Structures are given as C-alpha cells and as structure tokens.
C-alpha cells in the first residue's frame, strides 16, 4: 500500500496520531514503535498488510502502522467470498479522510470469509486492526508464500527505515 503522501508525513512530523490514545488496548505481546503496534505471531508484507496463518486458514488485514498513516477509515471495499486473491495483487481498497489506498494480498488463495462488520463499521480498522478490523480469511493456495513475508522484528525495522526516509 503506497501510504506515503504529504498529509501523513506532515501528521507524523507533527506527532499527530489517533492511535496513541488506544495504547491501553494493545496486547502485552506487541512491539510498539512510534505509536504503531506490531504483533508477534503475524507475518507482514512490505505493502503493510498482515497475515495470521492458523491451520488451513490465513486471516489478512492492514497493520497498525498502515491504519495510522491512513487516518480515519470511512469506507472499505473487499472481495466476495469464493473469489480468488493473488500474491502482490490488489484485492480491495480502503478509503480514509486522507486518501483511497489499494489493499494488496500478501498471499494467493481462495477467499473463504469476508469481515462483513467493516461495511457498517469501517473504523474497526483504526480501533482494532489486528482483531475486529481483519478483512478477509483465505485458504492459501501456496502456503510457501508465507515464508517471503517479514516477521515482527523485520517489519518494525522496515517501518522505522521507511519513516526515516520520509
């Protein structure tokens, strides 16, 4: 997700963040940096989506870092169940008060469930990006694709380096 735009850079420079007030909601097993939370047990794409792989199901959403840069999410477009997603291809969009950004799939597979709560409550992506704000559940067609994703420490460093470059 190309989240680098002048508005988010300005907000970061001014230390404006809606996620700071939610720090009491973050789990104890997270790594926090710059008001963003990165959870252990998840894999992360450089486009800022996360994957939680459990058995034959992979849950996908956008990271706390991504939602923080987007600002208040007002609309989410997601695929239908039984459709396919492909690694590094667009599967939906997130519209915020700042911009509309594509959601890129970190893995390939069949969509087996869509978070229908997001249609009426897109703000769940802001308030709970790793729990209630998940987007789709996928049956991976190539589980080996998960190996190319970053772990929490690598993703934290990736975000820090990306933020420092802007």
TrEMBL record:
Modified residue annotations for N6-lipoyllysine: 98
UniProt keyword annotation of Mitochondrion present: yes
Cross-referenced Pfam families: GCV_H
Keywords linked to the UniProt accession: Lipoyl, Mitochondrion, Transit peptide
Limits of the Lipoyl-binding domain: 57-139
Details of cofactor binding: Binds 1 lipoyl cofactor covalently.
GO cellular component, one term: mitochondrion
Cofactor: (R)-lipoate
Transmembrane segments: none
Quaternary state and interactors: The glycine cleavage system is composed of four proteins: P, T, L and H.
HAMAP family membership: GcvH
Job description of the protein: The glycine decarboxylase (GDC) or glycine cleavage system catalyzes the degradation of glycine. The H protein shuttles the methylamine group of glycine from the P protein to the T protein.
Family: Belongs to the GcvH family.
Protein name: Glycine cleavage system H protein
Natural source organism: Raphanus sativus
Protein's gene: LOC108823102
